[in-house]
Each structure stands twice: as structure tokens, then as C-alpha cells.
Amino acid sequence: MPTAVLAGDPAYDRILAALPDRDRFRRALGVGPGQRLVVVGSTWAPRSLFGGGAGDAEADDLLPWLLSRLTAELPADEYRTVAVLHPNIWHGHGPGQVRAWLDNARRAGLDPLPPLDGWRQALIAADCVLGDHSSVTYYAASIGIPVLLGAFPQEDLDPLSPVAALGRAAPRLSRRSGLRTQIDRVIAAHDPTRYQELAELTSSAPKESAALLRRLFYDLMGIPEPPHPAQLDQLPLPPYRPARRTAPVRVLASGIRTEPPEVTLVRYAVPGGEPDPSEGPAVRADSAHTLVDEETRDTGRLRVADVVVRYASADDPRLGPPAVWTAEALDRYPYCGLAAYVDGPDRCVVRTREGDLVRLSAAPVADGHPDPCDPAAYASALYAWLAGGGQLGGAAVGVTVRTGAAAHHVTVEPAAPAVP
Question: Rounded to 5 degrees, what angle do the CA atoms 119, 125, 130 make?
Fold first, then answer.
């Protein structure tokens, strides 16, 4: 009596079939041109990345260090971060506990994906996976994604297993070096064929699992298979979920030019007492200011924020229209210099302390899709440009906002005032 069958791997087959959708998955996660998507993945084990690497001197307490460095080292507009955690982490500890552990990182923009949905799409969209000995990390390597191992208990694995081979081949994360430096190095040095031999071990029957499994099931039932081909459901396009930062954001502005109008921004979310990035020895900035989401938990920071932002649809009866909310915000926060109402993925309405009301809208990116940059960055750019001596009349042709390697061309137009 046979005790095993060759059945393939449906999860891997669905990933392979969806590889051409990489750009769509990146847009769904709010990843734009010049931006890097970092996926933090962990299995459920004491010496996993999320488990803290117990027993490994280099890995002990790695997770708190990693989460703090994701915030402190990765500029908000140059990196997008999501977490893929094993379902047993969620169910074993409870969603409330997991969210508590990730609280500061979540408020700074780390997006924990649902435990069962979206992780395959995130792997396909990733620029780097920071993981451990999980199948998620192995899948990422098998499709040519750069991998950086945060925890890897080699002694817990069969040395002849494919996963153990990944541990011998992939670079390791070290707390002795900067996180951003290591991520950038792994991406820059990566050869897509690096893990080709490991990819060949992922499945003995790639793209054949649907046919193999259906044949098995019908044979066990003793009835003939249907005449149509066996097929797996394709991976769905995830809902649009750009990064959201409710922690205060420190904005560093440089390269401020008036002719033509241009501003370069580097933004860092600063949750829970993290050091001010503008005070670092390597930081070069002409000016710095703080932007705070009105839905922040740090409500005391709203009173001293330079820019206050609200995300809502323009017709939200609780807040809108934008002209009304921006006027109310400036009254509510007397030290705020500019209020921004983000009412679309690539646009916002801002009101200055002088009473000017304008709409900022980003031009589409090169492929014709809306620019996925956070529109709050455009509000900060305008604030820095005005503080640097610019005049709204001089911005009539628009402002170029640079974030990392990306240039966002933003139009500045008078916005309609609220109807009395």
C-alpha cells in the first residue's frame, strides 16, 4: 500500500503563475519608482526571527533592535516595509499581543499583513526579504528575490535539507553594521541566479500540482476526472494599502531652489522617544520640521507640529470638505504653519497660516499610473519651500519634490473655498 505521492506544491505554483503581476502587486502596496519594498518574515519557533534567536549570542533580542532600526534608518519615502508572520504567531500569542509587540513599528509605517492572505503577493513584489528558516524565506530565494537572514538556527535543521542549504548560501544580518547599509548591499550585489539550484529543489513538479492533486483525489474516490483541465485559483490583486504613519514624522529638507521650484526631502517616522534624525552627525539638511497625523496617539505633539495632516475623502461629512477642515485645523493648532487634507492617493489640499488655500497634485509616473508617494510629503515640501523664502506665486508652475532617487512633479493650483 503506497504511503506517499508526488503532489507538487500549490502555494509555489500560484507564486510562479503570478510572477508577471509583480508591478501590480507593488502598486497595491503603495510602492513607487525608486522605492524599495522590504518584507520582514518569520516562522513560529523559539529561534526564529520573531522568537528572538534564543541561544544565539548574535541573535538574542534581535527583534527589538531590528524593529527600531527599521524606523530609525529607513527613510519613509524610500522604503516600504511589511511583515509576514506565521499564522501560529498570531493565533498562539493572540492578535492583540502581536500588535502590541509591533506597536512602535506599526505607527512608523510597518504593515503586518493578514496571516493567511497577501503574503505571496508581497514576496513577488519584494526588493529584499529579511527572514529566517521559514518556507516564506525559501520561496523568496527560489524566485530570485534578495534574501538577508536575520535568524537561522542551522543546528535545528537537517543538514541535507534544501532549507539548510539556503542558510549556508544566504548572507546574515549583523547588528554590528547599519541595517540600511546591509539591505542596500544585499540588493546591489544580488545575482538573480544565485539560488537557482535551490529553486530546482522547491518542487519536483513545478506548475503541476493542480493536475496531480486532482488525479489523486478522484482516484481515491474511484470516479473519473472531469474533462476540463485542473487549475488553481490565481492570486488576487490585494486591496490598495499604502503605508500609513501615525507617529510624528521628522522632515529634513535640503536643495531648496526657487527657480525652478524644487525641494529634496528625507522623512523619518519618530515613534516612542526615538532619537531625532536631524541631530545625526551624517545628516545634511537646510531645515527640519515635524509633521503629525491628526489621528496620532501622540496628541501632545499636535500642539507643536509644524504641519498637521488628515487623511479622508473630500466628501466625508465628519470632516470635509477640505477647505473647512484645514481652516478648523489652523484654529485648533495655533502653532501649526500649514494644514493638509489628503483626499486622494496623489493629491491634497493645504492651507497656510496666511490663509492661502491650494491643491497639490502629483503628475503620473512614467508608466501613466498615479504617483504613489504619500501626498503629505508634498505638503511638507511646500512648507519647507515657503519657509525658505519661496512665494506661492512663484510656485504656479509647480514644485519638484525629490525623495531619494525619485522626482515627483507637483502642480500647485488655487483650491475652491468652502461654500458658505
Answer: 70
Q: Is 404 left (phi over 0), alpha (psi -120 to 50) or beta?
A: left
Residue of 42, 50, 124 lying closest to 86 (CA atoms): 42
226 burial via Cβ count (<10 Å: 0-12, 13-18, 19+): exposed
Q: Model-level pTM greater than 0.90?
A: yes
For cell 493648532, the residue is: 333
Tell me the pLDDT tens digit for each residue of 261-300.
Answer: 999 999 999 987 666 665 655 567 889 999 999 999 999 9
CA dihedral 270, 44, 207, 164 (to 10 degrees): 100
Q: Are strands 79-85 and 36-42 parallel, antiparallel or unpaired?
A: parallel
- Alpha carbons 128 and 94: distance in angstroms, whole number: 27
> Whose CA is closest to 134, among 49, 256, 27?
49
> Nearest 5°: phi and psi at 118?
90, -15
DSSP single-letter state for residue 146: -
C-alpha to C-alpha distances, 229 to 18, 218, 308, nearest whole angstrom: 19, 14, 56
Phi-psi region of 69 (alpha: psi -120 to 50; beta: other; left: phi over 0): alpha
The cell numbers describing 115, all together, are: 496571516
Under 8 Å between Cβ of 227 and 213: no
